[in-house]
Design goal:
With about 140 residues, the chain is mainly alpha-helical. It contains 5 helices and 2 strands. It has a two-stranded antiparallel ribbon.
Length: about 140
């Protein structure tokens, strides 16, 4: 059973998946930082500094100063702004991943094109049939 598990773990697909998950987690941190620290401030600049995360409705009919105050009071809250920001973040992340995949595909295609264009090494030319027949003739003459 242990050997079977070791064989399963050592398979290329499992290792590739593990590496993909680890790289994906690291990439997620980078993209979240890019979205939160770079892109959202630009969006806020164009929207007049509006922060969507503060957009909420208290379902109990009360009025609260902030989302944190509503949650602290234990009010049921419909946090529309967080959802809007999650959708915006998803679209930005999807766009970044799309651009990266597109770039990787271009690099891959360029490498494949170079391999196709590179002249294949010609096999060393051996003696022709005529050369072999002439050698046989010369050997028989001796």
């Amino acid at each position: 059973m242990v050997q079977e598990f070791k064989d399963f773990i050592a398979k290329g697909n499992v290792m590739d998946m593990a590496v993909g998950i680890i790289i994906g987690a690291a990439f997620t941190a980078i993209v979240k930082s890019m979205v939160g620290d770079l892109i959202n401030p630009i969006i806020a600049l164009f929207t007049g500094g509006v922060d969507f995360t503060g957009w909420f409705y208290a379902l109990n009919g009360e009025v609260y100063v902030s989302l944190a105050a509503a949650k602290e009071a234990g009010a049921p809250v419909f946090a529309v702004g967080r959802f809007v920001m999650a959708v915006i973040n998803f679209l930005i992340i999807a766009w970044v991943v799309f651009m990266l995949v597109k770039m990787v595909n271009r690099v891959k295609e360029a490498a494949e094109k170079q391999e196709e264009e590179a002249p294949a090494e010609e096999a060393p030319a051996g003696p022709s049939e005529l050369d072999i027949l002439m050698e046989i003739r010369d050997s028989l003459k001796r």
